[in-house]
Amino acid sequence: MTVTLADVAARAQVSPATVSRVLNGNYPVAAATRERVLRAVDELDYVLNGPASALAAATSDLVGILVNDIADPFFGIMASAIQNEIGGPGGRAGGERLAVVCNTGGSPERELTYLTLLQRQRAAAVVLTGGAVEDAPHVAAVAAKLRKLAAAGTRVVLCGRPPAPDTEAVALTFDNRGGGRELTEHLIGLGHRRLGYITGPKERTTTRHRLEGHRAALAAAGIEEDPRWTVHGGYDRGAGHEATLELLRRDPSLTAVVAANDSVALGACAALRESGLRIPEDVSVAGFDDLPFSIDAVPALTTVRLPLAEAGARAGRIAMGREEAPPDGIATITGELTIRGSSGPPGH
Amino acid sequence: MTVTLADVAARAQVSPATVSRVLNGNYPVAAATRERVLRAVDELDYVLNGPASALAAATSDLVGILVNDIADPFFGIMASAIQNEIGGPGGRAGGERLAVVCNTGGSPERELTYLTLLQRQRAAAVVLTGGAVEDAPHVAAVAAKLRKLAAAGTRVVLCGRPPAPDTEAVALTFDNRGGGRELTEHLIGLGHRRLGYITGPKERTTTRHRLEGHRAALAAAGIEEDPRWTVHGGYDRGAGHEATLELLRRDPSLTAVVAANDSVALGACAALRESGLRIPEDVSVAGFDDLPFSIDAVPALTTVRLPLAEAGARAGRIAMGREEAPPDGIATITGELTIRGSSGPPGH
DNA sequence: CCTCGGATAGAAAGCGCTTGCTAGAGAAGG
DNA sequence: CCTTCTCTAGCAAGCGCTTTCTATCCGAGG
């Protein structure tokens, strides 16, 4: 039926051990023998049995990448960069590793299940991207899993996610708080005093940090925040659209809307326009992330640029052991305030 | 070190065979015994060894999803839908399958390598998404691989990709030609006679089909196409931006620009605006796919809506054998012309 | 009371590959 | 010319799980 190592060995007139060694290239094999084996492999069209190999060697070449939403370019861009460094086919690295992107949909259960699945596959490494859910039991459960994975020799890297305490996981964290603060400071600097804020999904670290940054900026400027100015939403444009309508209903005198991310900001722009408001003359809008489409919005979006691809690449290299982990296993990556047309002085 | 089936068996005072049966649930086990085993599993925190299981059972629960560009929502949306049906954690289906998204970057070699990797892992199913490269040797190589995969029991489904001849692969194809034609007919109907076209990457089926549809519409309307009106590009906004500038340079009298997809269209809009042209008063723009951000463009993009999520879901179900394949293994999925603000009558 | 059949559980033979150890063959050294 | 290495290649023992075949235990039927 299927061709096995033994078949190749028979054809090349060598032992299975030799074939294995030729294929793995980690043991001296005479050139002539190697040649013969390779020819046999080719002639028989042999394909290694991954599971058998993984079982015998007690390692696999699977690398897991967990993302919250695969349809969101925020994750797509990171995943792409990670995968590139992981050394999948054509990637920068040599080995042929299978990078598997797992879509958790932001659900804690799915996240946990995927981690178990990866543990089951004896994954070589796991990269968790994006914000984490803050529910205490879940945080503990994830930490426990990560510890187990690490114990089994799986390298764990967090990319754009806060550190996991009591864990060997390396963390590359985005400075969401700082970015949020800068953004709002910029708006305040333009003269805004009444700013609406649309958050991401509740219970997410990213959501909380960006909001905290926003509030820190307000506090620093001595602006007292009105509770009506904050609306909880999600990370998609629809959420931004609805939330903006709600904000306008609550306080039509707002002169700026800060969104949890660019997609939300886009939805906000749409809602504002539908309401007959001009951007930025009547209301300024700001996003976060600087995804590719943000520059094409009209007006172009003021936002905080996050080096998604760079962070992903670095995470990938660390996961493969090709780059040293940052001191203490934690590195903070800062965003860059990017001012464009969607923000301007209020009320003119 | 790691807990094995045997450990669990010892703890539960049964044979390894019984534990395996409890875990797989495909053989009668007395309730009391099952109970005992489950408790042992829990107490020892046992995690099945995937490779060992796959080796012994000669099957795995891996499902591969090949995409051309994971950072592009076009693929993200499909992948997400597929994964949901595949029955990954939390998905609709029961089993816990590991859906792995592989990013080929549009490269034929990577595509082939990933297929080999999946074959190596004895994947349960493989879904290939998006347009294919048309290079003859590569098409043959892929077909050969797909045949081999099918022979090994792997179900193969193509989603948004033309059928692979001489293959058992089920194909859900998008009617790119028809969509392209409708779109251009719409523009011609508005009165446009000089239409620029920005293609996707060369040698891709999607690129060719959309362009063919466009030309068919021109021909049907008796419009003779000027070679200068076609610029070859890519699928990202940058390509659209550049290509549009080039189109304007070649023939400033164009009254409409048809783009290979929405991202390209967005880039085109930006370029037009920079050139001081209004949309749609001076130049109409049309995209393709109707990605989420297209409705938020200003003006909102006229495009062809492709039911990405639906198609993905269906592909996923077929891959899992939960839905019957279409007759002859081929189904054509049509897009829906979606007219919005970016297209209007020329020259007013 | 004995036999037979249905339900459960166990024994054991692999699944295809890796790798520690051993063996043979020349090359080099004494 | 024999011993001692250095190279290569083979042997064989698993890796941890699944599954066929067999054994055992009971209650039912004769």
From TrEMBL, chains A, B:
InterPro entries to which the protein is assigned, alphabetical: HTH_LacI, LacI/GalR-like_sensor, Lambda_DNA-bd_dom_sf, Peripla_BP_I
Domain HTH lacI-type: 3-57
Pfam families reported for this sequence: LacI, Peripla_BP_3
SUPFAM superfamilies listed in its UniProt record: lambda repressor-like DNA-binding domains, Periplasmic binding protein-like I
One of the record's GO molecular function terms: transcription cis-regulatory region binding
Coiled coil residues, start to end: none
Keywords: DNA-binding, Transcription, Transcription regulation
Protein name in the entry: LacI family transcriptional regulator
